Amino acid sequence: MKHPHFFGYGSLVNRNTHDFTPIHTSQITGWRRIWQRAPNRQVAYLSVIADPDALIDGVIAPVLNDDWVALDAREFSYARLAVTDAVTHGATDVRDISIYAIPPGQSALPDTEHPILLSYVDAVLQGYLHEFGEAGAQHFMHTTEGWCTPVRNDRAAPIYPRAQTLTASERSFVDDMLLSVRAKVFA
What we know:
Elements: E1 3-8, E2 24-36, E3 45-62, H1 69-74, E4 79-82, E5 87-89, E6 94-101, E7 116-117, H2 118-142, E8 144-145, E9 151-152, H3 168-180, E10 185-186
Parallel strand pairs: 1-6, 2-8, 7-9, 9-10
Antiparallel strand pairs: 1-3, 2-3, 2-5, 4-6
Helix pairs in contact: 2-3
């Protein structure tokens, strides 16, 4: 049976942050990742904006029984957009694919009072490391806009609700990547 799927490009890449299976690595054209904030959120999250020249790695997974309720609740503040023809994947049971994005005109610039959470970056990069390896995680870092946004170090007491425990090598990789993009991490 064919199912609708979502395209994940942030924390949804990390299998430990959800129960959707099976996951298939994939790519989407025409979209670029960017750090943004929805006005009703206190911190910055990843979103995507249309860009005909962009290509990003991610995953697709089925939303069984067309039950979008839990995923829509998780991705509140985002609009769900159809992107089926823009996604390249190897799955065989796909009916259509949607992506979540903060709607243009409904985003706010992240800042010191609305930072990126390090616990969120950790979860995202752990997912990219597991699905795409170090080269894929590095590609994620260098193809995502907005690293000038301050990053709050909340590792000791994670604020992100789906925070993950990283190995020492994963933590070191994340820290090195943040240095490479000149992210401003603060306590």
